[in-house]
Amino acid sequence: MLALAALLLFGAAVMVAGAIAGHNASVAQAAAWEQQQKRRCVPAGGDGAAVTAEQVRALLDNTDAGIDVPGLPLPEEQVPVAQAVIATGAQMGISAHGQVVALATALQESNLRNLPYGDRDSLGVFQQRPSMGWGTPAQILDPVYASQKFYEGLQKIDGWEEMPVTEAAQAVQRSAYPDAYAKHEPLATALQQAIGPTLGTSATTAVGGRACAGQTAVGPAADPQGKLPDGYTIPRGTTPQARAAIEWALQQLGGAYQWGGSCTNPRGAEPRDRCDCSSLMQRAYGVAGISLSRTTYTQVNEGKVVPAGAVRAGDLVLSGGGNPASPQHVALALGDGLVVHAPAPGKVIEVTSITSNGDILAVRRIA
Questions:
Q1: By the number of CB atoms within 10 A of the CB, which of 55, 239, 249, 355 ranks highest?
Q2: What residue numbers bound the domain in which 288 lies?
Q3: Which intervals of the chain are annotated as region Disordered (predicted)?
Q4: Which CATH number covers residue 308?
Q5: C-alpha 26: how far from its chain's center?
Q6: Contact call for residues 86 and 92 (beta carbons, < 8 A)
Q7: What domain count does the chain have?
Q8: What are the pLDDT digits (tens) for 237-267?
Q9: What tens digit of pLDDT does each residue of 80-116 get?
């Protein structure tokens, strides 16, 4: 514990040089993209992950002591707590996805503040209760200890790496509001992206930022192999949750297919973290705050039935042989006769024609 605290203090002392050296390239890339895509904007509520990450980096670099970080009303207090959460996870070998789960939990429970009060005897960053065995009040009010106990709880959950953020958080916290964590994923992602590399851990995959006027612009993470047609925009009238799922899925274009992959880091080095067709759907809607089951054979029962001739953006399009009760492939409808999907081994996440996977066996409307 003392060693980790010393590491955090030392890290703060060298943060300026490390952060500037580590982020110049990504900052330049983001700036160039912003110049090319003037239509892109930060959504109401300040959860544009890329913009927030840049603001956090600026705060870490100490370029402006009064800088405003969207979503963090007290950044000078909240960012050090986020550092402790991420550093503890890194020391314990917790993945970037797990760190995002912890940050989203802390944002919901305490707004990333080390609170000396809460509901009943709840305390600290994660609002853990001494009476429930989380530790003594003094221990729980140590953000490093509190983070360690949260991660220990997370590691006890079977399959947590494959769960959407809100499900994994709920499995640890057992909140009366199980869906409340989903709305914090974009900000948690931005914080992990900005802080993780400065503490020697990898950054998670970005959650796609929302765009203005019913349109979507895909940022620098999009790979040309993904073949997104020039000028594509998400159709007007698409529901907010379907839009969020599409935006996230499009940010993964070019990520390598991996059968059985969890889709927790679609463009990462670990094959198990990449996507297959159904985990791409599960993760996209998980980011949007909707829990889906894991396989095509169960996703065919999600949402409500839609006729094949009435597909709209955000629908699950199931095909690939088999029969309507047991399809072998699933894709996410984009509108304009297009889908985004993870097609097969040796290929990458791409945009293609809705009919490219053979006859449509079923369509399910999730949002």
A1: 249
A2: 224-365
A3: 216-236
A4: 3.90.1720.10
A5: 19
A6: no
A7: 2
A8: 999 999 989 998 998 898 999 988 888 888 8
A9: 999 999 988 888 888 889 999 999 999 999 999 999 9
